[in-house]
Every structure is written in C-alpha cells, then in structure tokens.
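Thought: the user wants the 3D structure for the chain below. I'll pass the sequence to the structure tool as-is, report back what it returns, then summarize two notable features.
Action: structure_tool
Action Input:
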Amino acid sequence: MSEERHYFPGNNTPLGFFSYYGHILGQREANRIICIKGGPGTGKSTFIRKIAGHFAAKGEPIDYLHCSADENSLDGIVLKDKKVAIIDGTSPHMTDPVTPGAVDKIINLGEFWNEDAIAANKDTIIDLNEECSRWYRIAYNYLNAAKSVYRNLEEIYNSCAEDSEIYKLVAGIIDRVYTDSEISIMAGRKKKFFASAITGEGVVHHIPSLLTDMKQIYLINSPVGYPNSSFMEIIAEGAIYRGMDIEAFYCSMCPGEKMEHLLIPNIGAAFVTLNRYHDMEPWEIAGGDESKQEIILLDMNDHMNKSLLEKDADLIRSLNEEYDILLNKTVKNLDKARQTHMKVESMYVPNMNFTQISNLAEQVEEELEKIG
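Observation:
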C-alpha cells in the first residue's frame, strides 16, 4: 500500500465555486501535468482512479483530490515522487495548459463518445444543465446568508478573545516549534487547499489522512466562527521566513482569507482547527507509529472572557441554530444539483467507448513509468 492523502482543491463557498487548482503542482516543480477534458459521465474520475490504482500498487505516495460536487468522485491526483499531476480540466475548474508540451498535456475523452447519439439529447441536456446551475445559485444564496450569521459569531468571539493571553500562547508555540530553525534568505512557498468541503452529503473532511507523517500535532478546539486565522497566519509566516514550505487549508465560509489548518512538512508540525463540523479524537489521527506522534490539545475557550461569553450566551445559541438551518438548506440544494448532474451524466454514459478509454489509461501509465 502507498501513502495517501485526501483533500479538496476546490469548494462550494459563499463566493460560489472557489478554486485553488493553481496550487496543486507548480510549473517549475512539475515533471508533467495532464489536463483531462470531456463532458459529464465521460469517465474522467474513473480514468484518474485507474491510474492512481496502478501507481498505488507500486508504493507511489499519492494525493487524491476530491470533488466538492460529489465527494466520491476524483478531480485529480498527484503522484508525489514523480511530481506528476492528473487533473480534471473541465468546468468549473477550467484547468488549461500553461507550458504545453514541456510540462502540460491535454487528454480529450470527447474523442471516445458517440457525438450523434449525444446530440440527439441536446435539448434535454441543456435543460438539465440550466436546472443544475439554478440549484447551485440557490445553494450559494443560502451560503451567503449563512456567512452573515458566521460573521456575527466571529464578531462576538473577537470581542471575547483575551488577546494578550493568545499572543503568549502563540509566542510559546513559535519558540518551541522553531527552536532549531533560523531565518532564511530564501522564503518558503505556500500552497492553499481545503481539508473539508460543503457537499450535497453534508460537510465532509479528510483531515486524518493529512496527519499521518506529522510528528507534532496541535489540535485547536474552538467554536464555529472563532477567529483562528490570525493565530495560524503568525505561525505560517514564521515557517515561510525560515525557508519552509507550508500547506494552508482554508475555511469554506471564508475561502480567500481564513486559514483553518496548517501543515509544515519540513519539521513535521501540524495545526488543526476542531469544531462541531470537523471534530476528531486524538486516536483518529494517529499515524502508523503512535509513539512518534506528539498530540497537543489547545482549547481556545480557555482564552476568552467568560463573563462576556455568558452575557451573549442566548445570542450565540440563536446564531448557531440559524447557521445550522442555513447550512442544511445549502446541503439540500447542493444535493439537488448533484442529482440533476447525474441525470446529465446518464445522457453520456451509454454513448462512451470505455474500453478505449481504459486502453488509453494504460498507455498513460506506461508513459508515466518512464518518469523517475
């Protein structure tokens, strides 16, 4: 078995579909980036999964990039040792070649469909696509409403936070984590992804898979809406200034601004936000050798003014109820979008030559075997 990690390069957010696909593999670090083109139901995920299975059997460490529209579908993989990415390049991701031939390659699965048979369903496909877009618009409107509630929670927790105590906590962590590290003239790189996603099946996360190789794991317990990002950003900047690459995983509600989780692979340190939407017990995140992992529990509730929290207790309770209601409505409409998309897929599946697609996957496997 190979080492594997699972996360989302894109997400459903109050801003609509939010993409960090550009962070998957940089042009200079990549040996090959393969962009898969084709319509719904054309076998992109199956194609990607087949290649992943081939290299997983050989022990290649693999990152599995999940789809926020359907968590069980893959939008891509990264073969980490080979520095190869295979990515679904269709809407809404729209990943296109940047350095064609030298780095990027396009594979068009549309070459293996029966165009006449698909065209016969033109009006139905267009109607279903429009219906699918409508469900997404409704879902994103609910998410926008949820974000307003989230901001109110954030406002309350900001006013309750005991900043001086938090700064002491952060200073102690930085001193401990970076004890043997000096400031570097070469800044580290920052990659951005999502560890969890809002899907038609609810809020889904794969956080434990990201922590297997981490030696020191900080579990930061905090309520939904608590401003952990400033805490995370200070620690992240400390790593970057010391020449360390980091992986930052962002909040679905504030995708461009709020870091929820942080990995610093160079020193095996991880910082994970826990709340009721991604809650875990320490035993759930233990790697293969538990004795090599140190798990530190931090409770940010201990660093808030208790009297102020008590004063706003009824409001906090009400806001959490409203937030849950709006998020549930979001999920229901995302599920309607998913079900509608599956109907579109059913128009393509019978009209695809999957035998030829499977043969093509084997050809790609042979090509990638040559990359050291």
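Final Answer: Structure generated. The first helix runs from residue 44 to 56. Residues 186 and 243 are 5 Å apart (CA to CA).
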